[in-house]
Design brief:
4-stranded antiparallel beta sheet
């Protein structure tokens, strides 16, 4: 779908004397850009140079002359002319046999530029250098092939003609004989017909000269020559060593032209047949491989064929005779989808005497014309489509093919090339096509090879006749081609044209009429070389880009036109586009997108992508493809500064990115329809509906309250229908009636309701992209999301009931079913009402309801309504087996009302309703009520069914108390016992729960004796000691058991020294100080000293080991997790190469490769993982888990020391009271030392773990574990009197 667009032209005078008709040559220095030209005139070969770095870069300077003469055989005087970068000279080969090097350096130094480096005495018929310029092949006048090195040392020489067919000759074994092939309309006779190759001859246009052409990689070359023994032309393929590989199959009237495609798959030549002239192709093995026919109808012959550097364009250099006038022109052909298109026909007015493609830039051509001018043309591939952003734009794309413009409106149809929807046929070959700015893409201007512009009106949908609106002939400047024509308005066209007078481009703006007259022509200097001319269809502005990256805007003011600077790009961009947008609450803004030949995409000089391959400006999106085979969609109101390409995994719901086939390019994006047309490398087209376009259209439709269009777009493109609400909830709530008026089909309403869920899809699935008002809209609150489905269902149901309940009964039922939770009872109640009036309609609606939800569930709901007729209807419509439900229903119907309902509710597991109905069934069922309550733990609900003073309630309370006591909820059980009047049970429950205050209160209420209370107290004291509630145990011993000794013993066990001393002396039991308190303090002192010493040793040992670990880290793979695949490792031989726990050097490449990750993941069982967790908890020395184990152990040490401060402080005070000053001083000093060490080591110990864990099952190395630093509480435990 791409055309060949003329991007640049420059022109320089070679000589003030016209060149002869003989073939001339150009050669280009790829490093400096210097252009050498060689031509023959007046028995002299002249060589001139255009030096890019001189003060006269646009002029040629003659370097040398060499006498020469024309041969009698009509061959060219100049055989070959090529620049050799290694020699820094141009190599000239003449038919006389001379080979010369022309050096610019020698010329600039004042010496002779020409140096003859060798001569072939018999003359030279053809010569060709290998692509790497290491080997040169020459065909001598003695009909021999001479192969030499670049220093012209002979490699081999052999005769041109030979009877051998080569080493790679194919031998038929009978497969695929011609006689067995299908011959179409010619029938079986064609299979029997034998071609007489002895009658094959040469073409009358053949110059009888041999040709040589190399394959692009330099490993083979082909020689075309007229075989003297056959009088026909033959192709022979040789390898680099000069060994014959293959000979071509016989071809009648094969001509002299020859060129091997650089990519290597085809050898191009021509064949003159009586009724046509073909470009024919051969494979390396010499077999034919397709052809295409030239379209020239006049007498003509082909001078040369040339492939460009990337093999994408084939140049056909023709000589045509018209009206006794000879014209030499060049046609440029490209191939796509197995069809050859003629994209350009280069007619400079003067005959072309030299044509060469640039050796490095595949789209640059160098031409010499007979009028002694050198031309440099730069082409690009571009797509001809309208830039109009109107919603009525038909999306026409024009493909140039000679005199035909193949037109396809992609809004209506996608026609695969080389076919098209319609063909516009011109009177001459077409150069360019432009679309008018003032139409919807249905008016085009066609520029022909004679500089004539024809204007056409196309039918909107390619159905109908094309109307010719008019023609105009542009002013002709010899050799300078008008290019990039734009149709600005009904009477104005613009184009660029080069002027060799001041060597710059001019912008021509012509006011015309459709009668062929140019009313006024304005000519504006661009100020350099013009690169692109672009017209914005929306604003009508005209932009000119220079080759330095500056973009100028043409300002039309009354009768004057002025070019003003608009933007400066970092580098020249062959592809540009502009669009005018006006965001809400913003001024009109023009966005300019530009793509360089290096794949850099700029938007207003801001780099957006460095890997772009094509782009298109839609009215609201910038769309571009990348070398990563994705197409991106950027809203025009997005911050382009934040959209540079990054390595990321796109979300499944990312509307800005879509994967495409490798090498896909954008053809056109339809402005109003959500269609993007892509062309694949092989030429086929694909139309996709990108989510970005679809969502944009849906959002626009919702804004316009066009819910039908939005709904149909969602339905067609599988977009979640929740967007109809989530895009604008308030708008939806205000227009529910409008929605149901537009989307009135019951099936469509049901589809919408069935897709509802309590989720905001504009956040989870389709987040808005950009910075416009849409992106900053407030999101719904959580409460709205929770009630979203119910709110919508209620509003829709209300409207449908008001309209026609009978018509919309299915949709109304859907609102009940889709509610959260489903309101099936209301649905069945509605069906019951409908059944009373129209049983047939009710059964149909019930069938639909069964389709929406589970039939068994609906059966249970109907059963729970206690309506047996409705239950039977549901059962019948759901096609349940009567044997499954009839006996059950019959059994239920035989029961009393409330007991029947109890059975139903119990069956439906509605236990609260069941016990409620059972309680109403009479006192005879009370025992069942108690048992049922116990079975389903319904105590609180069952208690609410009976009055407070009733015996039934007391029975339930006792059962409830037993249940609570079994759950160890002793306090609640005691309360229940109390409410039931069972105080002894309440006392037992309080005692079990250690609620001693309540227990003694109940004991007093039961009038327990003092001895019984004392016994109760002793029992509670022992239980409290077990729970380390020593203070409370001591209080019971004093208040109820009257046992001072037991009280003091409890306080000593709780380290409550001061209180124990106070109690002993208060109750005159000072003997307990000697017998209990002093021995206790001594024992505690000894224990704490041992604990402090142990803590200090642990701290020093573990911190030392931790420093050692962190200085010399163990190999993370030394003790790797067990690999269950190695359980049978003994079965492998000693030489078996596989991963194990011991292959430490290969672990990163073998175990954790992407290929084996799934195997490792499947092999690790939960048992293996638990084993690893146990290893981690043990922290075995030398493993990667040791560091974490040590740090965790030290953290527990810190917590223990922090908790000991108060205990040690109390013990020190007691020691001082008893006069043990030295002991108090020692333990205070020791513990203070330990705390100081702990404080100083916090920052060094508790840092992120530094030992690396091995990768997990997915091959990901986990991040370092962060350990929270412990805090040592601030407690005043020391005595100042003991400080030194």
């Amino acid at each position: 779908m791409r055309n060949l667009q003329l991007l640049e032209q420059c022109k320089s005078r070679l000589s003030f004397q016209d060149l002869s008709q003989s073939k001339a040559f150009t050669a280009v220095d790829p490093d400096s850009g210097d252009v050498y030209a060689a031509w023959f005139t007046d028995d002299t070969v002249k060589v001139a140079l255009r030096d890019q770095h001189s003060d006269f870069a646009n002029d040629f300077v003659e370097l040398c002359r060499l006498p020469a003469f024309e041969r009698n055989d009509g061959g060219n005087v100049i055989i070959d002319f090529l620049y050799l970068p290694d020699a820094q000279a141009a190599c000239l080969c003449l038919n006389t046999g001379d080979i010369a090097l022309i050096s610019k350096e020698r010329f600039n130094a004042g010496g002779e530029a020409l140096e003859i480096v060798g001569t072939v005495d018999s003359g030279i018929l053809s010569m060709s250098w290998s692509p790497d310029q290491e080997v040169v092949v020459v065909i001598t006048g003695a009909s021999t092939v001479l192969e030499m090195t670049r220093d012209f040392d002979t490699i081999t020489e052999f005769p041109l003609d030979t009877n051998e067919e080569g080493e790679g000759v194919s031998h038929s074994v009978g497969w695929g004989k011609k006689e067995t092939q299908f011959h179409g309309s010619e029938g079986k006779a064609a299979a029997q017909r034998k071609a007489d190759i002895n009658t094959y001859t040469t073409s009358p246009d053949d110059d009888q000269q041999p040709r040589i052409s190399w394959r692009g990689d330099g490993s083979f070359y082909v020689v075309s020559s007229v075989d003297s023994s056959k009088d026909s032309r033959v192709l022979r393929v040789y390898n680099r060593e000069g060994v014959l590989q293959n000979t071509s199959e016989p071809v009648d009237k094969l001509e002299h032209v020859l060129n091997w495609r650089p990519s290597g798959n085809l050898i191009a030549s021509t064949q003159r047949l009586p009724h046509r002239h073909d470009i024919v192709f051969f494979e390396r093995n010499g077999l034919r491989h397709g052809e295409f026919t030239l379209r020239e109808t006049s007498e003509h012959k082909v001078i040369e064929l040339q492939w460009n550097a990337d093999s994408s364009i084939l140049a056909v250099w023709l000589q045509v005779r018209r009206n006794d006038t000879i014209k030499k022109t060049v046609q440029l052909w490209t191939m796509n989808n197995y069809h050859w298109y003629m994209k350009q026909h280069m007619d400079l007015g003067s005959n072309i005497v030299a044509f060469n493609w640039d050796v490095e830039n595949p789209y640059v051509a160098h031409i010499l014309a007979e009028d002694a001018f050198y031309h440099r043309f730069v082409f690009i591939h571009d797509i001809a489509t309208s830039t109009s952003t109107s919603k009525d734009n038909a999306g026409y794309v024009a493909v140039i093919d000679g005199a035909s413009a193949l037109m396809t409106p992609f809004l209506y149809q996608n026609v695969p090339p080389p076919m098209s929807s319609m063909v516009v046929t011109a009177d001459e070959n077409i150069q360019e096509i432009a679309y008018s700015n003032f139409s919807t893409g249905t008016q085009i201007a066609v520029l022909g090879v004679s500089r004539k512009v024809v204007f056409y009106e196309l039918p909107e949908n390619a159905r109908g006749a094309t109307v010719t609106l008019g023609t105009v002939q542009l002013s002709i400047t010899d050799g300078s081609l008008p290019r990039q024509i734009k149709w600005i308005n009904q009477t104005t066209i613009a184009y660029l044209q080069y002027s060799d007078y001041d060597h710059q481009d001019y912008l021509f703006v012509d006011e015309i009429n459709m009668k062929g007259d140019i009313l006024k022509e304005s000519k504006l200097a661009v100020g350099g070389r013009g690169l692109r001319l672009y017209s914005n269809a929306l604003s009508g502005s005209l932009l000119v880009e220079r080759n330095d990256g500056d973009i100028l805007e043409a300002i039309f003011d009354a009768d004057t036109i002025e070019l003003q600077p608009l933007l400066s790009l970092p580098s020249a961009a062959p592809w540009i586009g502009a669009i005018t947008i006006q965001p809400e609450s913003s001024d009109v803004k023009t966005i300019i997108a530009a793509l360089t030949d290096r794949g850099k995409l700029y938007v207003d000089a801001q780099l957006v992508s460095s890997e772009c391959t094509s782009f298109f400006l839609r009215h609201n999106f910038l769309v571009y493809t990348t070398t990563n085979h994705v197409v991106r969609f950027l809203p025009l109101d997005a911050p382009f500064s934040d959209t540079q390409e990054v390595e990321k995994i796109a979300s499944a719901y990312d509307e800005t990115t879509r994967r495409v086939e490798r090498g896909a390019r954008i053809v056109v994006a339809i402005q109003d329809a959500p269609k993007l047309v892509l062309q694949m490398p092989r030429g086929n087209l694909e139309t996709v509906c990108p989510r970005a376009f679809v969502l944009s259209n849906i959002r626009d439709a919702i804004k316009k309250v066009d819910y039908r269009s939005a709904f149909l777009a969602c339905r067609t493109n599988r977009i979640d229908l929740n967007i109809l609400y989530d895009e604008d909830p308030q708008l939806f709530n205000d227009n529910v009636d409008t929605l149901l008026s537009q989307v009135h089909e019951v099936d469509h309403i049901n589809l919408f309701l069935s897709n509802l869920r309590n989720e905001d899809v504009t956040v989870t699935m389709y987040p808005k992209v950009g910075t416009g008002p849409e992106a900053s809209a407030a999101l719904p609150t959580t409460s709205i999301l929770e009630n979203k489905v119910n709110t919508i269902c209620e509003k829709v149901r209300t409207v449908l009931i008001q309209r026609d309940q009978k018509k919309y009964i299915q949709a109304i039922l859907s609102t009940y079913v889709r509610s959260t939770p489903s309101d099936l009872e209301s649905a069945l109640r509605l069906l019951a009402e409908l059944k009373a009036t129209d049983i047939g309609h009710a059964e149909e609606a019930l069938s639909y309801t069964i389709f929406l939800c589970d039939a068994d569930r609906l059966f249970d709901v109907a059963l729970g309504m206690y309506d047996f007729s409705l239950v039977l209807m549901v059962a019948q419509q759901s096609q349940k087996d009567p044997r499954e439900y009839l006996p059950f229903l019959q059994e239920l119907q035989s029961l009393e009302k409330f007991y029947q309902r109890f059975k139903i509710d119990d069956h439906l597991k509605r236990y609260k309703k069941a016990v409620h109905n059972l309680s109403k069934a009479g006192n005879s069922h009370f025992e069942q009520v108690v048992n049922y309550t116990k079975l389903h733990t319904l105590y609180t609900y069952a208690l609410s069914l009976y009055p407070n003073a009733s015996n039934e309630r007391k029975t339930l309370l006792l059962a409830y108390a037993e249940y609570l006591q079994g759950r160890t909820s002793y306090d609640e059980a005691a309360i229940a016992y109390t409410m039931a009047g069972s105080l002894q049970d309440a006392l037992d429950a309080y005692s079990l729960g250690l609620s001693w205050r309540e227990a003694f209160s109940v004991a007093k209420e039961l009038q327990y004796s003092d001895s019984a209370i004392a016994d109760l107290g002793y029992g509670l004291i022992e239980s409290l000691k077990e729970k380390r509630r020593f203070q409370e145990a001591a209080q019971i011993a004093l208040d109820y058991s009257k046992d001072v000794e037991d009280a003091v013993d409890s306080l000593i066990k709780g380290n409550l020294w001061n209180e124990s001393i106070r109690i002993s002396r208060t109750y005159n039991r000072t003997d307990l100080v000697e017998t209990h308190i002093k021995p206790g303090i001594a024992e505690t002192y000894s224990q704490h000293r041992d604990d402090i010493k142990e803590m200090q040793e642990q701290f020093e040992k573990q911190t030392s080991r931790l420093r050692e670990l962190r200085q010399k880290k163990p190999d993370p793979f030394m003790n790797m997790p067990d690999d269950p695949t190695l359980e049978n490792v003994d079965m492998f031989s000693d030489t078996t190469s596989m991963y194990s726990q011991f292959t430490r050097n290969t672990v990163t490449t073998a175990r954790f490769s992407q290929a084996s990750s799934s195997t490792a993941r499947s092999g690790r069982s939960s048992k293996t993982k638990r084993r690893e967790e146990r290893k981690k908890a043990r922290g075995k020395k030398g493993t990667i888990y040791e560091e974490e184990y040590i740090v965790g152990s030290l953290k527990r040490l810190y917590e223990r020391a922090s908790g000991m401060q108060a205990e040690i402080g109390g013990m020190i005070k007691t020691l001082m009271v008893f006069g043990h000053v030295d002991d108090a001083k020692v333990i205070q000093k020791q513990f203070s030392s330990v705390l100081t060490q702990l404080h100083s080591g916090i920052d060094d110990i508790f840092v992120p773990l530094q030992l690396q864990y091995p990768p997990n099952d997915e091959g990901i190395v986990p991040p370092p574990t962060v350990i929270e630093k412990p805090t040592i509480a601030t407690v005043e435990w020391t005595l100042e009197i003991l400080l030194e």
